[in-house]
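Example 3.2
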Amino acid sequence: MAFDIAVKRVYEPPAKADGQRVLVDRVWPRGVAKKDAALTLWLKEIAPSDALRKWFGHEPERWVEFQKRYRAELDANGEAVAQLRGLLREGKVTLLYGAHDEAHNNAVALAGYLRAQA
């Protein structure tokens, strides 16, 4: 079963097409009011560890290694992954993130991880 997953910056306005909106960052995004985020869930437990996030630093040259390390963390984080998979079984889920880089962030890596496991 293929999951219907989208990835979007939390700073973009919510849309009906988003389905369930899940923030997957450990830190709340600056300047976003909780009511404006229109979240279904803030699943900070699924975010990369602080150590991995700081090591990565959104450096594109570390992207491949970041994904590998983050997948290992996700493999060891069965409860949070199962919670997200449960939402995906109900329908579309949009993974929200706060990073500036739209191509190299934990939500993109997480979506790839989930799609590969579907």
